């Protein structure tokens, strides 16, 4: 998988332990230029609003976990890499995430520059290629520039008139990479090594820049085992917020796992962790979350590796056991920002079911025997406490309900293992009210299919709010249920994903998940 024959090296400035600048988002250009008549590869860093010139040997580039995206088949084919999901900088989803945007600038060299991948070290493959939407629509193959595989080229020519070349940088595994570039201008050369941290397995602040090595940290000896956390922390995978009959009453509980392997938990003993990889930009048409382009922590209705996938579950109740629908009412939110739950209809219009930014309580109702998923968004990092009242009228007329408060930790400012579950008592800011740009009264049931191509033990996507009670724990559609307690009927589109309306909904969902799903439909069709 690695690049045979490549040896890591570098001739840049001294590599000191510490003091490296971590570049985790914003524009930067790798710029070959003549300095005192000699070629030198430098980085023009514009991530802070002004341009700062840096040596590659003093920088650690961070391909954040949010940059994990669908690999387009033409790019994989051109670079000789996998077509599974990879970490990509400048990929097709770049406009929706906070990540570095590394380009190449040729206008400072006084002529053409030959750029060579002279050294490589890393846990997976690296590649750099250009593949635009225009190339896709015209069936033009991707153009490979550099790569560590045997199939990929080792060099490319950066023309002297190239103001900003913006290829996709691709990495196939998490960890620390060392990329050694040699630039040649008029026969003279400069060689520099760039450290790249991919994903969130390694803290980039702990990595030596340049051609250094990752320090090995060891925990100090201790005579006592660490105290286990007070809460059960769930940071990834499937968990349902469920209404469950217990001793003739209704209890609100969490069901973690799949249809065949799961555990039940009391909400007051659980902390849900929305990991940093959920951070993205607010897209247009979603102004009820805040200003377009601002950050938000987004859990998509589609299952995404490494992220929490919260759903709703009333499958413990048969349809003839409940008169009407089961209500999940959001009574209050304590936290540093707003919380919203929503999906998009077949016309790609967001339908908001719960939103603390425009006032509470908000009620979301679901038919018994249902399993469904929605998008969740949090507008700031920190600890949130959400209080829900779950209620229903049983078939014999008995009214049952349960009120529970549970904690969420959003981002990485707080260690979820240190958070007290349930109500807690830490100080939090009052959320800022965000006027809703979308009507929330009696939304029309829609084909907001939740596509889960890789989830094990998953059911087929559903376009209605109701999944057959024997269906799997994964992949169900967003509920067509109403916000505010309306008894709107469920949608009835088939769950094959082939109908035009469902494709439109998947396209809308793709905006939320970063846009990759739409291209997946076309570009992976020829891949076994």
Can you walk through the features of this model?
The chain is mainly beta. It has four helices and 31 strands. The protein has a six-stranded mixed sheet, with no helix packed on it. A hairpin with a 6-residue loop joins β3 and β4. The chain is elongated and about 90 Å long. The two termini are 21 Å apart. The model is unreliable at 1-5, 7-17, 214-223 and 435-528 (pLDDT under 50).
The biggest sheet, with number of strands, parallel, antiparallel or mixed sense and barrel status, is:
6 strands, mixed
Shape: elongated
Ends apart, CA distance between termini: 21 Å
Q: What's the tally of helices?
A: 4
Strand content: 35-45%
Low-confidence stretches: 1-5, 7-17, 214-223, 435-528
| Biggest sheet: strand arrangement | 1-5-15-14-9-12
- The whole-number mean of residue pLDDT values reads 80
Radius of gyration: 25 Å
Assign a percent range to the helix content.
Answer: under 10%
Please give the number of β-strands: 31
Class derived from helix and strand content:
mainly beta
Give a quick precis of the structure.
This protein has 528 residues and is mainly β. It has 4 helices and 31 strands.
Give the SSE map.
Elements (H helix, E strand, L loop, with lengths): L20 E3 L2 E10 L2 E8 L6 E3 L4 E5 L4 E2 L3 H7 L6 E4 L10 E5 L8 E9 L4 E5 L2 H5 L5 E5 L7 E4 L9 E4 L3 E11 L2 E11 L33 E3 L2 E10 L2 E9 L4 E4 L4 E5 L4 E3 L13 E5 L8 E6 L12 E9 L4 E6 L5 E6 L6 E5 L4 E3 L1 E4 L3 E12 L5 E12 L89 H14 L2 H8 L5
Parallel strand pairs: 1-5, 2-8, 5-15, 16-20, 17-23, 20-31
Antiparallel strand pairs: 2-3, 3-4, 6-7, 7-13, 9-12, 9-14, 10-11, 10-13, 14-15, 17-18, 18-19, 21-22, 22-29, 23-28, 24-27, 24-30, 25-26, 25-29, 30-31
């Amino acid at each position: 998988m690695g690049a045979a024959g490549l040896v890591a090296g570098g001739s840049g400035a001294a590599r000191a332990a510490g003091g490296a600048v971590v570049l985790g988002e914003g524009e930067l250009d790798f710029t070959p230029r003549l300095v005192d008549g000699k070629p030198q590869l430098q980085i023009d860093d514009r991530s802070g609003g002004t341009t700062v010139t840096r040596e590659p040997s003093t920088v650690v580039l961070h391909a954040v976990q949010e940059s994990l995206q669908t690999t387009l088949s033409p790019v994989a084919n051109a670079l000789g890499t996998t077509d599974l999901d990879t970490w990509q900088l400048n990929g097709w989803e770049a406009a929706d995430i906070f990540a570095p945007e590394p380009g190449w600038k040729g206008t400072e060299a006084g002529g053409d520059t030959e750029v060579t991948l002279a050294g490589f070290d890393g846990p997976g493959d690296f590649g750099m290629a250009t593949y635009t939407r225009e190339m896709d629509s015209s069936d033009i193959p991707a153009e490979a520039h550099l790569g560590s595989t045997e199939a990929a080229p080792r060099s490319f020519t950066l023309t002297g008139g190239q103001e900003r070349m913006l290829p996709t940088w691709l990495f196939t595994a998490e960890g620390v990479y060392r990329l050694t570039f040699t630039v040649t201008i008029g026969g003279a050369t400069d060689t520099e090594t760039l450290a790249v941290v991919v994903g969130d397995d390694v803290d980039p602040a702990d990595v030596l820049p340049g051609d250094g090595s990752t320090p090995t940290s060891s925990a100090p000896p201790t005579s006592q085992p660490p105290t286990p956390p007070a809460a059960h922390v769930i940071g990834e995978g499937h968990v349902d917020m469920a209404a469950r009959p217990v001793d003739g009453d209704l209890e609100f509980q969490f069901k973690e796992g799949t249809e065949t392997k799961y555990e039940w938990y009391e909400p007051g003993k659980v902390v849900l962790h929305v990991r940093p990889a959920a951070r993205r930009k607010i897209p247009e048409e979603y102004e009820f979350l805040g200003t377009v382009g601002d950050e938000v922590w987004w859990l998509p209705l589609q299952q995404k590796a490494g992220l929490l996938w919260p759903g709703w579950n009333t499958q413990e109740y048969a349809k003839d056991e409940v008169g009407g629908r089961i209500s999940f009412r959001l009574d209050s939110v304590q936290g540093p920002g707003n919380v919203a739950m929503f999906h998009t209809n077949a016309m790609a219009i967001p339908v908001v079911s719960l939103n603390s930014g425009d006032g509470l309580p908000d009620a979301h109702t679901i038919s018994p025997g249902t399993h469904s998923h929605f998008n969740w968004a949090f507008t700031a990092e920190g600890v949130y406490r959400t209080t829900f009242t779950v209620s229903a009228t049983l078939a014999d007329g008995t009214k049952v309900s349960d009120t529970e408060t549970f904690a969420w930790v959003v981002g990485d400012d707080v260690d979820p293992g240190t958070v007290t579950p349930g109500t807690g008592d830490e100080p939090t800011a009052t959320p800022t009210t965000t006027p809703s740009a979308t009507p929330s009264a009696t939304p029309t049931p829609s084909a907001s299919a939740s596509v889960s191509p890789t989830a094990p033990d998953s059911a087929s996507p559903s376009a209605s709010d109701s999944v057959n009670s024997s269906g799997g724990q994964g992949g169900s559609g967003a509920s067509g249920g109403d916000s505010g307690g309306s008894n709107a009927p469920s949608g009835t589109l088939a769950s094959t994903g082939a109908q035009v309306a469902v494709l439109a909904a998947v396209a809308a969902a793709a905006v939320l998940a970063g846009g990759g799903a739409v291209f997946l439909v076309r570009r992976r069709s020829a891949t076994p």
